[in-house]
Known about the structure:
The protein is mainly β. It has helices spanning 7-17, 36-39, and strands at 22-26, 40-45, 55-59, 65-69, 72-76, 81-90, 95-107, 112-115, 118-122.
Amino acid sequence: MGKATPDAVLDAPLESIAEADTIYVCSDEPANFAGIAAVALASGTLTPGDGNGDFTIGAGDVSGRQVTIAQQADLAIATSGEADHVVVADADAQVLKQVTTCTPQALTQGGTVTVGSYKIAFLDPQ
Length: 126
């Protein structure tokens, strides 16, 4: 018999990520939700839930399951700095949901930044 993990099991953490209501562009990796305030350079509102516009859960590109976070265009830059992380969080519940790195770039207060679409995947067991 082969190894298998049901989609519902792999989807559970992806559904939790898809509960995020805010995306942040940050100058460093926050340790927790409270730490976002010290490193956030820009932010934008997300529509939570699979299939509601900003999150799509489905089959992984290689195997397993993934959540795709839609592109977030023209986020207002509140603080100048060197961006190197993107964070999604549930600001209402004050819970950090996921952190990823991005290509470092200098952001200038008053401008805008676009976060391209990206995926978070859980592979099938090997």
